[in-house]
Amino acid sequence: MKKIALILFSSLLVLNPSCKKKNGDGGINLFSLEDDKKLGAQVAAEIAANPAEYPILSETSYPTAYSHLRRITNSILNSGRVNHKDDFDWTVKIIRNDTILNAFCTPGGYIYVYTGIIKYLDTEDQLAGVMGHEIAHADRRHSTDAMTREYGLSILFDIVLGKNQGKLTEIAKGLSSLKYSRGNESEADEYSVIYLSGTGYQCNGAGGFFQKLLDANSGNCEAGGFLSTHPCPDNRVQAINEKATLLGCTTTPYTGTTYQDFKNSLP
Ligand SMILES: [Zn+2]
Questions:
Q1: What is the whole-number distance in angstroms between the Cα of residue 236 and the centre of ligand 1?
Q2: Most CB contacts within 10 A, which of 4, 122, 148, 207?
Q3: Domain-embedded: residue 68
Q4: CB atoms within 10 A of CB 163
Q5: How many domains is the chain built from?
Q6: Cβ atoms of 105 and 82 closer than 8 Å
Q7: In a domain, 242, yes or no
Q8: 117-158: per-residue pLDDT in tens?
Q9: Residue 261 C-alpha to ligand 1 middle, in angstroms?
Q10: DSSP secondary structure string for all residues of 224-236
């Protein structure tokens, strides 16, 4: 039985508690793009240094798996709809843990996907939807928002300046369970549809993941596990489908076999 753990992609960090839009980002952000990149690079280095918490799948040993994940990621980045496509590094890593149905990202576009969610999903559209959601958290700069709420601004600026190694280690450890605001979660869902509308994928693919979770729990948001600790996916499926209708983007499932090939390439 899978431990439907965490955070329906809740994972990342951002910062911008306010509501006005600025420069195409999700809100007023006190961090510069350079700060996002520095913070993300430092957190990513911490993650790389903690294989007990984050057993990163070796790219040397599993090049095919990484090429599939990059192919999916790049099609989203090349959708023409990612605001900071050329500003961030956009690196992807696979974490080897089949029991965790999650993905997360850092500011600056370092994205992590658990083998558990790759294996759980049925189609490439669904994974593209999840990746779109994570890319949105970094691109809309929700990650710094969530981190600021959790840790406070001064600590994060200290980390950008390389001043608080102990806290950096703590933040990296908690990254996979960092909570975003509901508003940021909704926006990440919405942007997943927007990004995928510029690809060949079914643009409401993220909804497929939520629907699968609902089906597994008989639609009961109080059923426990993941669904008891996160916003009920029910409304999210509806919002995603409404956005797809509004955009008029394709909701026809992709029928190729590349996703099965991807799953087969994992340990
Ligand atoms: Zn999220």
A1: 11
A2: 207
A3: yes
A4: 11
A5: 1
A6: no
A7: yes
A8: 999 999 999 999 999 999 999 999 998 888 888 898 899 989
A9: 26
A10: STHHHHS--HHHH
